[in-house]
Amino acid sequence: MRRMTLAMTLLGLLLAAFAIGAQAAPLPPAEPDQAGFSTEHLKRIDDFFDREIAQGRVPGAVIAIARDGKLVYLKAFGHADKDKGLPMQVDSIFGLASMTKPMTAVGVLSLTQQGRLPLLSRLADYFPQFGSMKVAVTADGSIQYEPQRRPIYIQNLLRHTAGLTYGGRPDSSSPAANLYPPGSALRSMNSSSEFIETITNLPLVYQPGTVWEYSEAFDVLGAVVEKVTGKSLGGHLDEAIWKPLGMTDTAFHIGPTKRERVAKAFPINPLDNKPQEIQTEKEVKFECGGGCAIGTVVDYLRFGQMLINSGSLDGRQILGPHMVKLMTSNQLGPEIKNNVADVEPHRAGYGFGLGVAVRLQDGLAAVPGSIGEFSWNGAYGTGFFADPKERLVVVFGTAAPGELRKYYREQVQNLVYGAMTRAR
Fold first, then answer.
1. According to the model, what pLDDT value does residue 172 have?
2. Which residue among 33, 46, 64, 369 has the highest number of C-beta atoms inside a 10 angstrom radius?
């Protein structure tokens, strides 16, 4: 009786959340017990974020869990803007940062399945200057340059094997990495043309197709999409993904009526007392495909559910089932050095598909999950993972742009899988 009472209480809270936050439920709700979750153990998520907020480590959070296409858990904690006293809502808007990448990947594959952007087409066919980029190598203690041994293909961009990088990353071992602009600098660029000109005047850090290196490849892909479609990247993603899925709060630009819904970080990082910010206040001109989108947890839950559903949701087919399988399968063959765990230390034993990390084995990783689970996260404190075997999609948002974001990625996965009572 007590378990049923808890389940009905949680269901009531979910329905109340829809009334005060998002205008419609992102997915049909289900009682946790029926979906294979313990209602009591899901309360550990509440306890965890209540503690984090009480200790002043994070302003607030939103967590959503879906299984079998049904919404099992959706809750907002704390504040979206602590200084203004604005509470976090389930439809609060987050800077998605690198969670833009999986959406850009789907945008690319939507063109691939139309015969408009083959994965083995050469990047130089769209931007010839990429064909003349040299590769930086270290010899006798100095940087030297050699020609590309093979061209950069669209597939290389989608799997981060193009030889590009991000500037300012401690996990990059290339001596030329610091020549690249950091991801945060891309929001200040005026256009994709300016970005392409900047990148192509730098050397590649590895030979194409040889090393997985987290990079600005998806920003290049956004520029390719614009060239192929004749539209802005946001225009294409809105037409191909956001509008068909009802992702009404996902975009590259925040309208004036939505500004108060934006989740803001503490101005001072609670771990090191250094200034921090989430770059959502400044309007972007360059719609960068690697990290410039904004959106809500409930919108992204629908995106993740579409992928778990083999490319469709509510009767709208975004990608064909085999396109989704291609995207969410490991693309790193034995000839490619796999550095995924250098960026995501808790994801040892993962490979990489097209825009998402992919779990390859049950062990090695520091988080529970199933073989085939795929995921990616954002530098401002957002994340998602999807487990096809368990028919599970989880999305969370926190305004935590510092090192805490990595802690929350790991803990949310532990909390969610730890609350499950039934595995498949």
1. 66
2. 64
Instruction: Please identify which residue in the block is written with the tokens 């994709």.
Output: 192
- Tell me how far apart the alpha carbons of residues 126 and 123 are, in angstroms, rounded to a whole number: 6
DSSP 327-366: HTS----TTSB--HHHHSGGGTTEEE-SSSEEE--SSSSS
- Both 49 and 193 in a single domain? no
- Domain hosting 17: range is 2-101+232-418
Cβ neighbours for 363, distance < 8 A, ≥ 6 positions apart: 349
Q: Among the three residues 229, 245, 277, which one is the final residue of a domain in this structure?
A: 229
SS3 content of the chain, % helix, strand, coil (to 5): 35, 20, 45
141 plus 279 within the same structural domain: no
Considering the entire predicted model, what is its pTM? 0.93
Q: Which of 19, 339, 281, 293 has its CA nearest to residue 165?
A: 339
**pLDDT for 140-189, tens place per residue?**
778 889 999 999 999 999 999 999 999 877 666 677 888 888 777 777 78
Contact 21, 88 (CB under 8 A): no
Tally of domains within the chain: 2
Evaluate whether residue 141 is within a structural domain: yes
Last residue of some domain: 213, 229, 245? 229
Q: State the pLDDT at residue 331.
A: 98
Query: Residue 6's pLDDT is what?
Result: 44
Cα angle vertex 263, ends 260, 267, to 5°? 110
Which residue ranges in the chain fall short of pLDDT 50? 1-9, 12-13, 15-16, 18-23
Residue 394 carries which DSSP code? E
111 in any annotated domain: no
- Give the C-alpha separation, 219 to 300, whole Å: 20
